[in-house]
């Protein structure tokens, strides 16, 4: 059974968090969605190792800030979608891409 890659979930977490904040008018509720998404991604990808997960969380934080900086230039939705794609692109090689085991001979 294949599962949805964590990269997709990480990127969607930013988009869904923003959508919830915008739809409800309660920014804190969007923050709760973001925190829940981060926790879900970390728990499901814990086998990737703490440093990889830390890098993804840090990338998510950078993307969150970047979306706020880009919004006045390109618009709110385009900036959130762009940083969601960037986060997914950063997350895939860190936690989803199959890693080959090298064996010393």
Describe the structure.
The chain has 105 residues and is mainly α. 79% of the residues lie in helices and 0% in strands. The protein has helices at 6-24, 27-44, 50-74, 76-96. Helix 1 (6-24) packs antiparallel against helix 2 (27-44) and helix 3 (50-74) packs antiparallel against helix 4.
**Percent in strands:** under 5%
- Give the number of DSSP strands: 0
**Biggest beta sheet summary:** none
Helix content: over 70%
Q: How confident is the prediction overall: mean pLDDT?
A: 92
The radius of gyration is 15 Å
Oligomer: single chain
List the topology elements:
Elements: H1 6-24, H2 27-44, H3 50-74, H4 76-96
Helix pairs in contact: 1-2, 1-4, 3-4
List keywords for this structure.
105 residues; single chain; 4 helices; globular; mainly alpha
Concise structural overview:
Helix content is 79%, strand content 0%. The longest helix has 25 residues.
